[in-house]
Amino acid sequence: MEEEPTWAELLVGLLLMVAVPTVIGGTVLLSVIGLTMWVTAPLRRRRRDRRA
Predict the structure, then answer these.
(1) Cα dihedral angle (35, 41, 43, 49), rounded to 10 degrees?
(2) How far apart are CA 23 and CA 41, in angstroms?
(3) Which secondary-structure segment (H or E) carries 2?
(4) pTM attached to this predicted model
(5) How far is residue 41's CA from residue 2's CA, in Å, rounded to a whole number?
(6) Residue 6 DSSP SS3
(7) How far apart are CA 22 and CA 19, in angstroms?
(8) How far apart are the C-alpha atoms of 18 and 12, rounded to whole Å?
(9) What is the pLDDT at residue 52?
(10) What is the pLDDT along the chain (52 residues), one digit of tens a residue?
């Protein structure tokens, strides 16, 4: 017969299930934001030069 998991084991399992998608999603989101800023930097620089 199998033992019931304790509340601590359940909590650790829940935290792992929540942490993995959060870390992966956060990494993807920050990568997309960073790439967007990097790609649009020359355009922003050009606009700033025109105003001066």
Answers:
(1) 180
(2) 27
(3) none
(4) 0.64
(5) 59
(6) coil
(7) 5
(8) 10
(9) 60
(10) 688 989 999 999 999 999 999 999 999 999 999 999 999 988 888 777 776 6
Reported as half-sphere exposure (CB side, CA atoms, 13 A), residue 49 has a value of 6
Express the helix, strand and coil content of the chain in percent, nearest 5 each: 85, 0, 15
Under DSSP, is residue 42 helix (H, G, I), strand (E, B) or coil?
helix
Q: Which amino acid is at 25?
A: G
**Separation CA 48–CA 41 (nearest Å):** 11
CA end-to-end span of the chain:
78
| Residue found under tokens 């956060």 | 26
